[in-house]
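Help wanted!
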Amino acid sequence: MPVATAPASSALTLTGNRLPRWAPWASVAGSALVAWGVLVLTGEHTATTVAALTALLHAVALTSVSRYVEGPRRATDRLATTLVTVAFLLALVPLVSLLWTVVSRGAVLFSGTFLTTDMVGVFGDMTSGGVAHAIVGTLMVTLTATLISVPIGLLTAIYLVEYGRGPLAKGITFFVDVMTGIPSIVAGLFAFALFTLLMGPAYRSGLMGAVALAVLMTPVVIRSVEEMLRLVPNELREASYALGVPKWLTILKVVLRTSVAGIVTGVMLAIARVIGETAPLLITVGMITRTNWDVFEGRMATLPVFAYSQYQQGGVGVDRAWAAALTLILIVMLLNLVARGISRAFRPKTGR
Amino acid sequence: MTPVPTSSQDSTVPGGGQAPHGAVTTAAGTPAGVPAGGRRTTAATMDEDMHDDSSAWAAPGPTAVDHRVSGHAQPPAPAVSLRASGASRVADTIFKGVSGATGVLILVVLAAVAGFLVLRAWPALTASPDELAKISWMNGQSLLEYVGPLVFGTLLSAILALGLAVPLSLGIALFITHYAPRRAAQALGYVIDLLAAIPSVVYGLWGALWLAPVLDPIFRWLSDTLGFIPLFAGYTAPARNVLAAATVLAVMIIPIITAVSREVFFQTPVLHEEAALALGATRWETIRMAVLPFGRSGLVSASMLGLGRALGETMAVLMILSPGYLFSFFLLKPGQHQSIAANIAAKFPEASGLSVSVLIATGLALFVITLAVNMVARWIIARRAEFSGAN
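Answered by r_m:
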């Protein structure tokens, strides 16, 4: 430990020498300046290289100064702080660039007509055409998947929380967890195998995609509903039993009523999770250029598959793919916001 | 205890014999007895409430004792249910039966997924080499020779992605839980969750059209300076190699790993952290001594979940990787690797007959791999839940 050339009062302080609070910031600023200067001289100054060199210089400078003034333990602490912060900032890069690219490139073709026209009669370099048919398809398929998975998910969660004891409940819990890990393409293959066996090899429909999505969605619904049901205080159930209300009515009128906000939120988030699934829809629902309202028969266009197929076409298609991606993200964000709003609106009034 | 119903009614409570009844009396007796000095002076009505309370506790019999609603399906309130017991008991049985049956349905669905995949893959599994040779993209290989490189490519891309994602996620999770101000931490957590909801096709678009050009100079530099190591040799633009695909996969699984490890780090017993701080530990030493040991198994299982996701991810790989079917460790060369999921999505639209069965057979391999990874992850989580002293 370097002995400080300290003023007389330092004999009374309990802490060792500390760097001033502004030291890290000064180190960042200094490192940035040096990095920029060096890289301009070598002629390689891009944002990436300057940032990388700045981080490196800052870590070295701050750690060594701190080691000299504050000792090795604080130096390690400062190094760890630097590393954690750099990791965090590094992770922000893809997030920000992703959102920025989708918005800026998506805005090229995104418009009212893009949302309200389909792709009938659009070919070559035509910039007209839109995603109306894909929006309809996405909503129909997702709605059907929701109608399948929500009742199953809700009842299973009720079983697990209110009735489930013993090996069966343990097994279900375990396999629900395992089911959350099914790759989306495998779910698609399952729906394909099931329906082509039952309906013939050429059968394609929105229902097929909905079944694939339901396989992916049900475990998510079970998980979130289960969590919400467990949050309901046991005193409420016991109070209801004490009043002579039978168990099933207690579940319907007390437990579900108390947790409805959380359940709806969980379902919305599950929808947001599957609405962007591409792979299973690619191999089950396929792609067409016009609107198909019939879930039970024929191919359907969906937004993710539309974005992918347009990207494959290249040219104007890439712009269309970005616009479709923007539409998709907007729908997902909207669902998230609605979920938050609902959870706020439905929240039971607590407190006296 | 006055609130307990008359003894004749009490005997109608099923399973509510004398022994649990006694336990109730003590359980209910404690709250009534403790505040005797303080509360009884405030108001007599308070005391009345107490007794009402304890009657609510005593009436359901054993349910009140083990604070969980026990497995009894019967309506547990004796006084009122005397009238409606018959009908409501039937309704109760039906309700329990339906919800239980739905639970079993989940198991059936999972079995059906495996069953139908095996059923449709069977023709490929039993086909003769001559039949398989008719499929043009099989190049005369047997099924095993065809699946091998695909499994290798899947594992390679997923493990590379995991290697990139875990240190970053650890950093983000620590930043959110221990470095950022509390208010900011909440907002950041929400942003991370939102990132997890972004569709994979958007990641694919972003990776192919934005990230690949950005990675190009980095890969070129890597190949130039570290090219003597075979791993990094032979980069050719554009960046459509397995490392680029793994980078996008890493970006996709960072939110998942971060979300889980953040939850685990938040659960670190505050007393442990405060004890470390009180002993004079720096923030990093606190993290190393109190937070990381507590969260290690949580971090492991979070990584396994991320691995499971990366293994099954289709679109990002499909849109970025230029495919090849080799056991190759050249991370920067294009046309060396392909993952199972991306291969299925690429070939499926044009496939028919036996080639569909071959693709489904590869899907079965993917299913088995992810199932194993997830089961291990769940097993680690379950073990942690048993041993963690947090509550």
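OP: Thanks! One thing I noticed: Chain A has two domains: 8-106, 132-346.
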